[in-house]
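Hi everyone, sorry if this is the wrong subforum. Our group has a chain we'd like a structural model of before ordering constructs, and none of us has done structure prediction before. Sequence below.
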Amino acid sequence: VEAIDLLRPQGIAPVAYQYHTIKPLDVCTLENLAQTVEAIITVEEHVASGGFGAQIAQWLATRRAAPVHVPLCAGDKFVLGSPHTPEFRRIAKLDASGLACSIANVWNGLGASLVSS
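Answer:
Right subforum, don't worry. Here is the predicted structure as tokens:
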């Protein structure tokens, strides 16, 4: 939500959805979104393998026409030093500033509507 607030002055207005579970996946909401947006960005604070982004990618693969999927996650790497959550998010570019930059890059690249989850 903070990232969205940072983007508004730039005329970028993504919509955010929060999913509290990845199974069962809320495909009804996803289907509605997929019909109205050109990109879905997933954000998660761990590796992508087996997570929410992977579930979205798998679901999108079953659709004939699908929006672009951009997974934002910590990546498959060690974060040394056991940083506290705010520091970890900054390092992984998952803090408000990092997310705003990534979302703006997608938005400007597509020139389209966007959903961030």
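For your construct planning: DSSP finds five helices and four strands in the chain. Residues 18 and 35 are 18 Å apart (CA to CA).
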